[in-house]
Amino acid sequence: MKLLRSIFLLLFLLSASKNFAQIIQTTLDPNQSPKPPSNWTQKNQLGLDLSQIAFLNWSAGGTSSISGLFKGEFSRTYIKGNQKWFNELIMKYGLNKQDDIELRKTDDAIQFNSTYGYRTDTISNWYYSAKFNFNTQFSNGYNYPNRDVAISRPFAPAYIFLGAGAENSNKEKNRTFYFSPITLKTTLVLDQNLANQGSFGVKKAVYAPDPLDPTQQILVEDGQKVKAEFGILLTAYMKNEIYKNVFYENRLSLYTDYLNRFGNVDIDYDTRLDLVVNAYVKANIGVHIIYDDDIKNKKDVVDPATGTKTQINEGPKMQLRQVLGVGLVYAFK
Predict the structure, then answer these.
(1) In whole angstroms, what separates CA 200 from the centre of its chain?
(2) Strand 226-243 to strand 246-257: parallel, antiparallel, or no bridges (unpaired)?
(3) What is the pTM of this model?
(4) 83, 101, 219, 317: which could form a disulfide with 297 (CB 3.0–4.6 Å)?
(5) Is residue 253 a contact partner of residue 233, using CB atoms and an 8 Å limit?
(6) Mean pLDDT for the chain overall
(7) Domains with residue ranges and CATH for the chain
């Protein structure tokens, strides 16, 4: 009887030890262990704003129209220790169609921002930073209703900013300030016709009187497609919830060149008010202001004798764009 009890006890201990070993093996299995947290965070958002108005036998008159604006915002942020690397891509493209009027562009932008920062400790909001910024557009731009001559094209212009400085980034208050006393600004006008006109500040073409016909001119030297400047850049970003589901966003960029009229500041200010209805519906009101001394306003002029239409530069003017839209927003990972 004692021998039988000893055998049962031995079998119980062997079974328990085997189960315990299986528990330990299962617990320590690396295939089932939780993944370490990633140093990357991301944001992906697509939006479509639509507006439409239609008339049929409307006694007060009016023109039917439909407008659409596609928007995409994507960001990737890497944070590890004292390092931070932020990347952002913003795209916009809008079209408008009215009765008896051709399709027209209302908005067009491609913007990519990348900032790498290093701070001396993990609690400071100040970073030693390097910034890269690129801006251009998707398609040709026109001085409507003139669609014969494009006043801008993809990569004509394109702007590249590259510099180093200091950045103050406060995640809790969702604001960022960047100051760079050493920034290289490069303007690209990769369309020879626009470059020959000296559009967007590049050196224009050189012409001389035609010896066979003094009333005509011949091209002596092509306009330059690249213009480089070296100056000071200040950028600021802030987004706050000023009321429940009402967000106020600001983006500001100020630049002045050391050698070319120092103190003459290029301004790019974009402000927007977002009213969130739910996770998929949002209304927004926005104003975008640009002033750049190198961007000359173009005006169409018609020769009364021949009827020939040409464009002349009137000089720099403040550019203003106002947007009011309601649309769908889709965010995904």
Answers:
(1) 19
(2) antiparallel
(3) 0.84
(4) 317
(5) yes
(6) 86
(7) 64-189+226-300+309-332 (2.40.160)
